[in-house]
Amino acid sequence: MSRIPAPDRFETVAWVYSPSDLAILLSLFEHADIHVFGVGRCLAAVDPGLVTALGGIELRVHHEDGDEARALLASLDPAPFRARLPFGFWPLDLLLFLAIGLLGAPPPPRQLPTFVLGAAARPPT
Length: 125
Fold this sequence. Notes:
Blueprint: E1 10-16, H1 19-31, E2 36-39, H2 41-46, E3 57-62, H3 66-74, H4 90-102, E4 114-115
Antiparallel strand pairs: 1-3, 1-4, 2-3
């Protein structure tokens, strides 16, 4: 078996927990012509409630596009817009989420995406 370095190294640039954040980041990367791979994306499509438990959807780019992807993520607002809760009055919102939970549907994830902007994204050499 040869020890030639593999030309298909990928770097993690972000973890995303919300389907809307995922769609926005995927469209930004596509617009910038950066190919991205979402690890756990299919599982999140099947059961969105498990995204938080599994650590989010890991966005990975080719190591040659890593610097460009990190520059794109650094230009974004670190705390994206979050919609208000349905009623804006916490007892009613809590009652709504409990009713939804009793029906078996988990509440949508509301975590902020995590961007890896430094040397932590590079694999050890």
